[in-house]
Inverse folding.
């Protein structure tokens, strides 16, 4: 890093506090904070008290956020505080998905962020139609090769690809659990988010003769009624003939949950702003839990370490699930491939090296 007399100062610009509700933007920013100890980071902390673990290092900046969610008040605070802090740092690193507010923010970028160099990591795209209305904030970082190509085609210019990271030491490889198998879906109550397809696919796998328990770990969004939405999923499962189904709210201890399951089922039709490379999938593969995914372009980066089925095709997804559950040797092969993929392509060393090189380039 340039400047032997002091460490470079970087603002981590997120829509909410890093110690609040954990979204993909917060996870990515926290990963960068921990991966680059030679950088003096400014980041937003929840006030009056954090809900999650408080990251170590850097300079926390208070943000009034009783619930820790990135709602409109938090976004306004981040924008105003970012405009002030941008004048005090050497570089701004924004973690902002392409949503309804980004086009306006991008057009106001010179006023809000001044002349400082900007790195814009795009966790996801809520609506691809918005891409044509967004001005690049600076050097853009995509999480997947597919999204990198799409952003370049949309006029984003200088686009790099830095996949997210998962620490293999934090998510150790575990042997396959014994006893009655459990299949896990984890996601949000979003249209086409994959929960309904998972239920229909599970019913298809049961008709094919597979025996298992289905767990759906759901997270709500602001304004949703999680209880009513969870009950609707239970009713759908019952109508599909599934008996052994549990629908629960978001699980705090993902380590324990993954230790108890055999397969991750994640077949969204559309990601709807979720990370192109979901953290849950990386954690599952690191733990040695094979995954059945939909055939979205972003998931091509997983290669042969996962099984994929056409998006929205519950029948084919269920067939893939049944095939995997009924073939222990294939399960072992995929479990080992998934772990190797995480270590080779999604580890912290590779992640830190790429962002460190990008920072050096922009600060030189």
């Amino acid at each position: 890093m340039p400047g032997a007399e002091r460490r470079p100062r970087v603002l981590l610009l997120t829509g909410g506090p890093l110690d609040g509700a954990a979204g993909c933007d917060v996870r990515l920013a926290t990963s960068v904070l921990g991966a680059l100890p030679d950088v003096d980071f400014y980041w937003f902390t929840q006030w009056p008290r954090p809900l999650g673990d408080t990251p170590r290092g850097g300079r926390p900046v208070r943000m009034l956020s009783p619930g820790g969610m990135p709602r409109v008040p938090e976004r306004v605070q981040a924008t105003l505080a970012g405009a002030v802090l941008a004048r005090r740092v050497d570089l701004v690193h924004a973690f902002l998905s392409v949503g309804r507010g980004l086009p306006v923010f991008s057009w106001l970028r010179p006023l809000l962020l001044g002349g400082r160099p900007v790195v814009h990591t795009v966790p996801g795209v809520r609506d691809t139609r918005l891409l044509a209305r967004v001005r690049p904030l600076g050097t853009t970082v995509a999480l997947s090769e597919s999204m990198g190509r799409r952003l370049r085609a949309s006029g984003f210019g200088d686009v790099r690809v830095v996949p997210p990271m998962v620490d293999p030491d934090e998510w150790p490889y575990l042997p396959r659990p014994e006893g009655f198998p459990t299949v896990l879906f984890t996601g949000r109550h979003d249209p086409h988010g994959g929960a309904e397809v998972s239920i229909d696919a599970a019913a298809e796998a049961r008709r094919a003769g597979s025996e298992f328990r289905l767990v759906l770990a759901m997270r709500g969004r602001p304004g949703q009624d999680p209880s009513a939405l969870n009950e609707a999923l239970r009713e759908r499962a019952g109508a599909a003939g599934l008996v052994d189904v549990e629908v629960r709210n978001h699980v705090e201890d993902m380590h324990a949950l993954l230790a108890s399951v055999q397969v991750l089922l994640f077949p969204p039709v559309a990601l709807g702003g979720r990370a192109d490379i979901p953290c849950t999938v990386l954690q599952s593969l690191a733990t040695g839990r094979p995954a059945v995914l939909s055939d979205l372009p972003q998931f091509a980066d997983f290669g042969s370490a996962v099984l994929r089925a056409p998006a929205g095709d519950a029948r084919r997804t269920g067939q893939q699930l049944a095939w995997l559950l009924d073939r222990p040797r294939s399960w072992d092969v995929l479990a080992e491939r998934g772990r190797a993929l995480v270590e080779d392509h999604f580890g912290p060393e590779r992640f830190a090296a790429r962002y460190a090189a990008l920072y050096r380039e922009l600060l030189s």
